[in-house]
């Protein structure tokens, strides 16, 4: 199975900051990586699909990049409503689909 | 609008069974593969199962070892997950999810249904 190693597990940043989350795949997954935002008590929300495509209606301060085994997710101009846990997910050569462990984002 | 609504969760004893449902509306259910994803309390997301649009092909997480069965009724726009021989570690919120087009990016999620396995 393909493992997705996500880091950091948590981070704290200030309003207006730029933050980056990384996911490393245990083998080449092309660009079959998606990113989700999950707020407490809610279902996850798709932000980025296929490594870098912004899902409809998602603010442009969210972005993703990468291919192969190294993927990054970035939020620029961090806003208070961005407080959430973020997950990467791969879907190459499924099953199984696998998720990263999650990154909990806090605002200072 | 596109919507998924899960039901069937509850508190059950170890070794028993439970059936979950996911009612779809607002889109052509029979055109989409569907997934189940679960999340244990305070933990991350875990993919559970996939069923293709026609229901002919089904895939599961290895960790489930044949205890769970996914099915669908396209005439009723409903997805199902049968959970057998439940264990305490199966305690989780169970979500059904629909992918975006031909990708496996989940752009429609249900609200989740909680399954608690406890004696």
Short summary of the structure?
Chain A has 108 residues and is mainly β. Chain A has no helices and eleven strands. Chain B is globular, with a radius of gyration of 13 Å.
| Arithmetic mean of pLDDT of chain B | 96
* Contiguous uncertain segments of 5+ residues of chain B: none
**Coarse shape of chain B:** globular
Terminal CA distance of chain A reads: 37 Å
Largest sheet of chain A: 7 strands, mixed
Tally of individual helices of chain B? 0
Q: Report low-confidence residues of chain A grouped into runs of 5 or more.
A: none
Task: Find the biggest chain interface.
Answer: A-B, 24 and 21 residues
Specify the oligomeric state. Answer: heterodimer
Give the topology string of chain A: H per helix, E per strand: EEEEEEEEEEE
Radius of gyration of chain B: 13 Å
Give a count of the beta strands of chain A, DSSP E runs of length 2 or more.
11
Instruction: Round the mean pLDDT of chain A to the nearest integer and report it.
Output: 97
* Amount of helix of chain B: under 10%
SSE string of chain B, helices as H and strands as E: EEEEEEEEEEE
Label the structural class of chain A: mainly beta
Q: What proportion of the residues of chain A form beta strands (DSSP E)?
A: over 45%
Please state roughly what percent of the residues of chain B sit in beta strands, choosing from under 5%, 5-15%, 15-25%, 25-35%, 35-45% or over 45%.
Answer: over 45%
Kindly state the number of beta strands of chain B. 11
Distance between the termini of chain B: 40 Å
Using only C-alpha atoms, the radius of gyration of chain A works out to: 13 Å
Blueprint of the fold:
The complex is a heterodimer of chains A (108) and B (119).
Chain A: E1 4-7, E2 10-13, E3 19-25, E4 33-38, E5 45-49, E6 53-54, E7 62-67, E8 70-75, E9 84-90, E10 98-99, E11 103-107
Parallel strand pairs in A: 2-11
Antiparallel strand pairs in A: 1-3, 3-8, 4-5, 4-9, 5-6, 7-8, 9-10, 9-11
Chain B: E1 3-7, E2 10-12, E3 18-25, E4 34-39, E5 45-51, E6 58-60, E7 68-73, E8 78-83, E9 92-99, E10 106-109, E11 113-117
Parallel strand pairs in B: 2-11
Antiparallel strand pairs in B: 1-3, 3-8, 4-5, 4-9, 5-6, 7-8, 9-10, 9-11
